[in-house]
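Researcher: Structure prediction, please.
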Amino acid sequence: MSVTELVDEIRQMKSAEKLDLLERLWENLAQEYDQTDLAQGHQEEIQKRFDKYVNDTASALPWEKAKESILKRYADRDNTRSSR
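Model: Predicted structure follows.
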């Protein structure tokens, strides 16, 4: 399957399916790449966000709650688009 065909298939997916695919791709990339492969600017941004979390853990959401919120937001958007 070509990249173009793959992208066309992805465009047909619902947002929840796209997010699941993205999560699986991210996990796959995390297994393949070491943090040293990241650009310096990316490493700095990750460190900045981590430091912000460490200094204010109360503002962070558990992944499951954040994921639920994201899925709901995109499901609502999909429903709005399909009712047009």
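Model: The mean pLDDT is 87.
Researcher: Thanks, that helps.
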